Amino acid sequence: MFLENTVNHTEQFGWIEVICGSMFSGKTEELIRRLKRAQFAKQRVEIFKPAVDTRYDEDEVVSHNDNRIRSTPVPSSANIRLLANNVDVVGIDEAQFFDEEIVAVCNDLANRGVRVIVAGLDMDFKGKPFGPMPALMATAEYVTKVHAVCTHTGNLAHYSFRKAQNDNLVLLGEVDEYEPLSRAAYYKALRLQQEKIASEKLESNLKDSETTSE
Question: What is the pLDDT of residue 160?
Answer without folding.
Answer: 92
